[in-house]
Specification:
D-Maltodextrin-Binding Protein, domain 2, 3 domains, 11 strands, Arc Repressor Mutant, subunit A, 292 residues, two-stranded antiparallel sheet
Amino acid sequence: MPKFSRDPLPPLEWIRSFEAAGRHGNFTAAAKELGLTQAAVSQHIRSLEETLEIRLFRRLPRGVELTVNGEAYLPHIQKALSLIRRGTSDLFGRTDRKVSIAGPASAMSLWVAPRLKKLTTDFPDTEFILSTIHREVDYENHDTDYEIRYGTGDWPDRFAARLYRENLVPAMSPVHVKKLDQQSWQKLPFIAVNGLRDGWREWAANSMETVPKTPHLRFDSFITALEAAKSGAGVILASVPLVQSALKEGSLVLLEEKSHKMTNGAWITWKETLTRDHLHDRVIEVLKRKTG
């Protein structure tokens, strides 16, 4: 009969060493993460195995490998440690924690900002610091916890979670749509935006439409271009995920059923070294929501 028959709870330091070693597949890497020596981690796991009277690892020439019993045990341990971290953070976490997020003005204003109320409600003692990125190279000058980036989701040394896939549709002020009568919207002034998104030519090619004429108005900000379209200045190629509020309030209306759906989109990204905890998981969860 196992030695723990009276109390089946092994010492926490043994459990932490087992979890780290199981995750890394290496005692040395586990020791580095925990701030211990490799010998200490090895001893913890040996003591755990002796207490359980079960082998949890197979020792290999390079590294270690979980046994069947080790693989079955690891997810239970990880879930338990996660609950402990979450409970400790929620009840006794520091009240001066700061979380920084940086990204393009359009994503920060039209996607992130509407979702911040939920985060500030859930974490009233956390300060959220928001910064705007104006150029791609500016990411190198920011040391933030999270960055909103536009692309395919593949950046060196960063994890990423998709916020939305880009979907472009012509749109304009509904007031001016009513005044069109039989006039086609293609005859109105076109509004273009500089940047990484596809433009009117790509939309036309994707929709099998005639390539539009040269835009009358060109902006370096989607936010400004959107305001111009809402005021009736012309037709904008709207990013559907970013104009949901304008569509709901009736200040913008889509002009076509055809859309240009792209593989690119907006992603929330973070360094591989960023500590994962309950707050991290909640930030990702809230910002990925389709509605604020």
